[in-house]
Specification:
Layout (H helix, E strand, L loop, with lengths): L2 H7 L1 H19 L8 H5 L1 H22 L4 H19 L9 H23 L3
Helix pairs in contact: 1-4, 2-4, 2-5, 4-5, 4-6, 5-6
Length: 123
């Protein structure tokens, strides 16, 4: 069974996974800027894309099971990225970044599209 079909068949597990993953993003964003490893700032764009690719990938099966569209899954994941950037305004040494939001949107779209494509591959 592919991952999209599996998550779609287990909505409770899917929702728990979304909550845990979103919590992990929040916790990572709570680390003060001066405590962040240098590599994080060097690879920030790639990390944001990868982080939100996973979020989009796991959000799509949950929302699509309830009639949600591809657009709604991308929007939900990207809006979580916006809320994460707002959260960082309150963390010492962190800041709001439009570039990070753009990376989050790209990752969300790629993850959601990948999840949908895998879901369609199910016979």
């Amino acid at each position: 069974m592919n991952p999209t079909a599996y998550l779609k068949s287990k909505p409770g597990l899917n929702l728990a996974l979304i909550a845990l993953y979103a919590s992990a993003i929040f916790i990572g964003s709570s680390i003060p800027g001066e405590s962040m490893p240098k590599a994080v700032s060097v690879y920030s764009t790639a990390l944001h894309i990868a982080e939100y690719l996973v979020l989009g990938f796991i959000v799509f099966p949950y929302l699509s099971r309830r009639g949600g569209t591809l657009f709604l899954a991308v929007l939900f994941s990207a809006m979580y990225g916006v809320s994460d950037e707002i959260h960082q305004l309150f963390v010492p040494g962190r800041f709001f970044s439009v570039a990070d939001i753009a990376s989050d949107c790209v990752g969300s779209a790629v993850g959601t599209l990948t999840s949908r494509r895998l879901g369609r591959a199910v016979p």
